[in-house]
Amino acid sequence: MNIMKFRNLYFFISLSFLIPGIISLFLFGLKPAIDFTGGSLMELHFTDQEKSVSYSENDLKSKLMNSYEASVIQSSGDKKVIIKGKEITNQEKDTIVSKLSTSYGKIEVLRFETVGPILGAELLKKTLTAILLVASIITFYVWKQFDELKYGVCAVLAMLHDSMILIGAFSLLGHFLNVEVDVLFVTALLTTLSFSVHDTIVVYDRIRELKRKHARYSFEQITNAAVLETLGRSINNSMTIIIMLLTLTILGGASIHWFVVALLIGAITGTYSSTFNAVPLLLVWDQVSAKRKLKG
Questions:
Q1: Which DSSP symbol is given to 179?
Q2: Quick one: which of 107, 204, 205, 232 is 20 to 30 A from 140 by CA?
Q3: 85-135 confidence digits (pLDDT tens)
Q4: Closest CA relative to residue 271, chosen from 168, 207, 195
Q5: Which long-range contacts (CB under 8 A, 24 or more apart) does 46-52 make?
Q6: Domains (range + CATH), the chain
Q7: Tens digits of per-residue pLDDT, 50-87?
């Protein structure tokens, strides 16, 4: 069975997920959390059992008028709400909670975080540096392990494919569901890189072994055999992670929900790209090199 002859189909499937995300990035960008922009975050729990708490973003903003300008107000569970806005002190936070208590009864502060704009900008810079550093190290490592530059480049292209799908997905989620990207998203993004490269190296190692054993076969035959021999193992390994993440997505708490969703997207795209992007890219590279040699 020659599954590599459908490589154009695999590229088309990838593009069908990449293009909407890239368009969204250009049109809407990402919705950064206070980790990057600076500001304060409060997560409040309305604990008064005697009052029937009913609130909306406009309702809370009207209650906070003249005391705090909130940029984001969103529900985080039953009788829980997250309020984000400009940077405030602990004393100002207590004043805001006290003012809301007059309308909603007893309120418990579950979380209060403040990040300065300088720290936020520094974190963004370090995030971009980390991604570029990881991509460079992986390219060099795979190149040296397999003695050919094409392995390193194709592995990183597949890895960037996964990253762009994840970033594009969160751009769409940010626009339609107000989902923000924070430090946990960065953690998920870097973890996605490892999902992708792990399986890619397994397939590449099998290609190297088969090239030594069956030098008379074409490169397409070897890559096809390597994929068929490793596909079942890759899917089985990934399914254990995907099932666990899917369970956490459904049953986990609100505070880690989007972090788990990001990991889930990364695990699925990483499993797909290792077989259906990284290996076909090798074939394309090999075909282009062969045509250049014939012309030369």
A1: P
A2: 232
A3: 888 889 888 888 888 888 788 888 988 988 776 666 777 778 778 888 888
A4: 195
A5: 46/79, 46/80, 46/81, 46/104, 46/105, 46/106, 46/107, 47/79, 47/105, 47/106, 47/107, 47/108, 48/104, 48/105, 48/106, 48/107, 50/105, 51/104, 51/105
A6: 3-33+119-295 (1.20.1640.10), 39-115 (3.30.70.100)
A7: 665 556 667 777 777 667 777 777 777 777 888 888 88
